[in-house]
Amino acid sequence: MTISVSLGRSIRLALTAAVLGIAPLHAETIKVTIDNFTFAPAEVTVKVGDTVTWTNHDDIPHTVVSAGKYRSKTLDTDDSFSFTFVSRGDYKYFCSLHPHMTGMVKVE
Amino acid sequence: MSFDDHDERGLSRRRVLECMTWAGTGVLWTLSGGVPRSLGLIDAAQAAEQQASGLTFLQISDSHVGFDKPANPNAIGTLEEAVNRIKAMPKKPAFMIHTGDISHLSKAAEFDDADRIISQTRLDVHYVPGEHDFLDEDVKLYKERYGKGTRGAGWYSFDANGVHFIGLVNVVDLKAGGLGNLGAEQLAWLEQDLKGRSKSTPIVVFAHIPLWTVYPQWGWGTEDGGRALDVLKGFGSVTVLNGHIHQVMQKVEGNVTFHTARSTAFPQPAPGTAPSPGPMKVEDAKLRSLLGIASIDFKVGVERLAIIDTPLAG
Predict the structure, then answer these.
(1) Interface predicted TM-score of the whole assembly (ipTM), two decimals
(2) Where is the signal peptide, in residue numbers (chain A) (predicted)?
């Protein structure tokens, strides 16, 4: 009885999360570093609700910009920016100061 | 022309011109009879003679005020050294151009410090922005301070002694995977600005990122720079002055001379010689030999250019 109730709740929660795009409880944080004007890893695959955190280790500021989706402030050395992905899709992004720096977040 | 060709030629010319090295910190330009030439500070007498009959101006670049990382913990100090050398010039230049990255992070205090130091030259300064000058949240500080009388993101033109100067902005609205960007609006303005102008008018174009493709792998070039050059092609004497890459590069193509100046803040590696274009840490004793700038000497009818190294020291 107890089990089925809590199971039912979990399912309802999961459904709510899926419908409203709310982060599920198991959401993870995936790290992307910026070293030598390069996003590493250049491509990450995450799940809906996961958060990606970019940290700049260069002596030069960078940004993380996905046109129309998200845009970090200027990240000076050791600054970080996080974004939580609530819907599926391919999110190409780049550094608006050094546009040859590009990356991709695939949200499944 | 490939970078290698360019570098090889540049090096050999530098060797030839070793005796002409001057301990300056900006490019000293002089215009005599409408023909731009550059002069070293060491040739003070010659400079004085030229200035009697022509126009002389300076170029500094990439001050990065606020930068305090290992490559140069005191970028303010080296800017002050540059300014002191300008102040010590025997004859005052007409004005100065600054080819961007005045500040490192577009903080008001950084712009304040830059202005306080650069104003000590007592020269009019014509600025164009670098990407480091547009980093404040509202992207307004550069425009407020330096954008008076400019269009768009800060482009403009002016005339001095029969020479037409054009300051361009190629650091905004950059596209993913691309290089520097001028944009359609600015290109249309440029075309309009040059319309009806005599083809014998010497043109000096200055912008932060090189208008020519230096090394696209590091973003060192301007996506639509070629379109600007198409508009400039018909003019008899075109000089393109840039910064951004913190080292001297030079190229001549037809009537167009391209030149990049050194930074007063920190050196960057030669294309492809390091994992990234980031600030290059060198021995303390060597730093001032890589800061400052270089000058160009060019004359109508003379194909070969002189590249003159102009370090802060050494």
Answers:
(1) 0.79
(2) 1-27
